[in-house]
């Protein structure tokens, strides 16, 4: 099997610098693939898919008539990132998380950045992720965003940009580890020879992060992962991370607050819990503070948190920094708090609440990608070049009705990587979600979740919209 018919097209291809010319870091892998027949490649692909089934690695699709549980579509040809590219990304991600954490802390305390006119107060106070209930809270170590998934895209020049920040409860890291586990079996010799940086130690780093932010510097805190339950779309990941880190997996009904202290119900009675990795959104976290009809949260947990008796990871209120309108200000946020230029640039962004920007967007809907400020998963989005006139008209009305809720960006010509299609290889567009942990220090896990748009020509990589994933190989040298 070879790549003689593989068309890199006008896009930036991450495996080939030119037709038939692999990039230096991909040469070993290309040589191995070319030494195998098509039958063998397809056999390994099928074995990988079966392994996902056997391991129970699934996600839930709601409202689908064909069944809700699916494996995450997976392509065995890995995405390779050169060491020099990764080193720059790592520096840029650390810079970004440090600045965003300072921003969140400022927003819930002195709000200097608003007073100094860098970010408008209206933008902050109308963000769905902003909660007045978090004003004045001091999380241990001043850390708010303990776990971040930052979405990156590479353009047609090979330059990485930040597409969006995910600081509430970013998902997908379990697939990173599952992908790696399966790829090491698929190409063991190439993996051993290529010098790939590990991701398997993520659970150990996650556990250390939880310990680092425990109240009163408790060296051996009891930690738990709070899940909405088995019907949540990411429940596989919740149970996987709890098992891998050795922490407790709990639902709201398993916890109780007594005199400002959070306890876990056990067969031996109540046991104090000091750190909670929450995968429950703020709205449902504490019915005495947020939604009173919530059955998923823990009454009184915010009081315990405010008293400093429990650490919530991520801290409630972090979502103010991943609002897509606030995203547009992150370069200014970095400069304001750190006095530095952003190492990883944003994608240029139009803010529809600005009259001039809105007028431009409405006149160019067929060219732009329009996004709702607080939607995720590929929903609430218009991809202009692939949209119909009816869809453009619909979005124009949405923008006019709620201009604060929409941004627009040029259609980025996403980089591509080969995937196996009908007995050969075709290029498909990808993005990248690296995971960043912040406890005692900021740590970036090498690689992350490469999501791939499996539909030909599609730019939408979300699994709920027909996307899949690849293992991400970061070269050590």
Layout of SSEs?
Layout lengths: L15 E3 L2 E2 L4 H8 L3 H18 L2 E3 L8 E3 L7 E3 L1 H25 L4 H4 L5 H5 L21 E8 L5 E7 L6 H14 L1 H7 L7 H11 L10 E4 L8 H11 L2 E3 L4 E4 L2 E6 L2 E4 L2 E4 L3 H4 L15 H6 L4 E3 L10 H4 L2 H9 L11 E2 L3 H9 L4 E5 L8 E3 L5 H13 L4 E5 L5 E6 L2 E10 L1 E4 L3 E3 L4 E5 L13 E4 L1 E3 L3
Parallel strand pairs: 5-25, 8-9, 8-13, 13-14
Antiparallel strand pairs: 1-2, 3-4, 6-7, 6-21, 10-11, 11-12, 15-18, 16-17, 16-18, 19-20, 20-23, 21-22, 23-24
Helix pairs in contact: 2-6, 3-13
Explain how this protein is built.
The chain has 15 helices and 25 strands. The relative contact order is 0.18. It is α+β, with helices and mostly antiparallel strands. It is globular and about 70 Å long. The longest helix has 25 residues, at 83-107. It has a 4-stranded antiparallel β-sheet. A 4-stranded parallel β-sheet has the order 9-8-13-14, with helices on one face. Among the domains are: 222-273 and 275-309, Rossmann fold, CATH 3.40.50; 350-410, Dna Ligase, domain 1 (2-Layer Sandwich). Helix 2 crosses helix 6 (173-186) and helix 3 (83-107) crosses helix 13. This is Circularly permuted ATP-grasp type 2 domain-containing protein. Residues 78-453 form the Circularly permuted ATP-grasp type domain.
């Amino acid at each position: 099997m070879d790549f003689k018919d593989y068309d890199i097209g006008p896009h930036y291809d991450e495996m080939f610098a030119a037709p038939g010319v692999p990039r230096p870091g991909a040469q070993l892998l290309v040589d191995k693939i070319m030494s195998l027949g098509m039958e063998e490649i397809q056999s390994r692909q099928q074995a990988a898919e079966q392994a996902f089934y056997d391991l129970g690695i699934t996600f839930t699709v709601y409202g689908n008539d064909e069944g809700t549980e699916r494996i995450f579509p997976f392509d065995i040809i890995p995405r390779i990132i050169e060491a020099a590219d990764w080193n720059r990304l790592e520096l840029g991600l650390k810079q970004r998380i440090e600045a965003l954490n300072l921003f969140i802390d400022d927003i819930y305390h002195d709000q200097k950045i608003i007073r100094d006119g860098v970010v408008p107060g209206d933008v902050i106070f109308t963000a769905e992720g902003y909660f007045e209930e978090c004003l004045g809270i001091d999380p241990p170590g001043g850390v708010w965003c303990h776990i971040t998934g930052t979405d990156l895209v590479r353009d047609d020049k090979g330059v990485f940009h930040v597409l969006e920040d995910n600081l509430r409860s970013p998902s997908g890291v379990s697939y990173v580890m599952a992908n790696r586990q399966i790829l090491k079996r698929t190409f063991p010799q190439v993996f051993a020879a290529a010098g790939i940086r590990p991701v398997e130690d993520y659970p150990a780093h996650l556990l250390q992060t939880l310990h680092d932010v425990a109240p009163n510097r408790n060296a051996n805190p009891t930690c738990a992962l709070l899940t909405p339950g088995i019907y949540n779309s990411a429940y596989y990941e919740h149970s996987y991370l709890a098992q891998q880190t050795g922490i407790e997996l709990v639902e709201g009904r398993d916890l109780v607050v007594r005199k400002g202290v959070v306890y876990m119900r056990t067969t031996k009675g109540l046991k104090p819990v000091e750190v909670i990795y929450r995968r429950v959104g703020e709205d449902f976290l504490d019915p005495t503070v947020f939604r009173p009809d919530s059955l998923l949260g823990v009454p009184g947990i915010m009081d315990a948190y405010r008293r400093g008796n429990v650490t919530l990871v991520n801290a409630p209120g972090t979502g103010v920094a991943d609002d897509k309108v606030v995203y547009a200000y992150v370069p200014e946020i970095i400069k304001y708090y750190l006095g530095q230029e952003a190492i990883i640039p944003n994608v240029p962004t139009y803010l529809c609440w600005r009259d001039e920007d809105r007028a431009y967007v409405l006149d160019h809907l067929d060219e732009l990608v329009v996004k709702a400020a607080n939607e995720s998963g590929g929903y609430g989005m218009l991809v202009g070049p692939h949209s119909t006139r009816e869809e453009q008209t619909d979005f124009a009305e949405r923008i006019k009705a709620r201009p604060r809720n929409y941004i627009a960006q040029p259609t980025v010509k996403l980089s591509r990587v080969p995937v196996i299609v009908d007995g050969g290889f075709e290029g498909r567009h990808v993005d990248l979600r690296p995971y960043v942990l912040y406890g005692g220090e900021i740590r970036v896990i090498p690689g992350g979740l490469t999501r791939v748009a499996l539909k030909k020509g599609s730019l939408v990589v979300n699994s709920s919209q027909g996307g899949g994933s690849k293992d991400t190989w970061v070269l050590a040298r």
